[in-house]
Amino acid sequence: MTIIKQGEATMGLLDGKVALITGAGGGLGEAYAKLFAREGASVVVNDLGGPRDGSGADKSMAQLVVDAIKAEGGKAVANGADISTMEGGQSVFDDAIKHFGRADILVNNAGILRDQTFAKASEADWDKVIKVHLKGTFCCTMPVFRWMRENGGGVIVNTSSTSGLIGNFGQTNYGAAKGGIWGLSNVLAIEGRKYNIRIWTLAPGALTRMTADLPRYKENPSAALGPDGIAPAVLYMVSDLSGDQTGKVLGVSGPRGVREMRMMEMEGWKPPHSGWNAQDIVDHAKEIFFSEEQIKMGARRF
């Protein structure tokens, strides 16, 4: 627990704050919930429960996390709503207001996996993954964003992925959803700035039950971070430690560490208003495209 001493008193980084965390019945969300509670936040722990493909429900998962937080002297309530619906998103917000009176922090973390190569993908799997990740982020953010707009601001963390920012084999549905979340965050940062609503996007790489059978973790599990290795970055985002920063993407993983990720673009070539053709792109390629050397020096395309 991070402690700031003020005379005889001690304070956590999130004292007096109320945090809403979706998908917090296990894995990353559970780690965030417990760390936030140790830092003084009151936490709404949302989780529908069930297997990672979203095919079932076990609302006791959220309650178990709440029980653990309370056992340590923290404050938390469980919410078992389906956040991929407007009613579910509203329920998470309503529980925050009902029990704690505020909604200072939202971490959109809930998600499922239904991986298949694109040629084998089904419409049902596509719709379900998009609904939970992308629509779920929308459903939970809407009531919280509106409250923050009228009550002095707050912090929202949306969970993307390198699968959406860069790409990953066999995850077209997941990558599309996570790329959409990144786009949503970019716009929310613009619209929320004047209301003191700060928006972060997180691209985590962690070994959890969601990722345990992915090739990169099966081949080298010792290089992976567990949920507790990601949580400090999220605490940084939602606390005063990050100042007034907004609209940024933070990647956190074992192999690459903690780093900002952003879209890069070349200076470019400006064609005349008329009279140019496709061959001109070939002729001006050095002005238009990143070279391999530039990429190696840090201009990563994603």
Automatic annotation (TrEMBL):
Residues 17-194 form the Ketoreductase domain. It comes from the Bacteria. Pfam families: adh_short. The keyword Oxidoreductase applies. GO terms for molecular function: (3S)-3-hydroxyacyl-CoA dehydrogenase (NAD+) activity; enoyl-CoA hydratase activity. Keywords: Oxidoreductase. GO terms for biological process: fatty acid beta-oxidation. Belongs to the short-chain dehydrogenases/reductases (SDR) family. This is Bll5332 protein. The lineage of its organism: Bacteria, Pseudomonadati, Pseudomonadota, Alphaproteobacteria, Hyphomicrobiales.
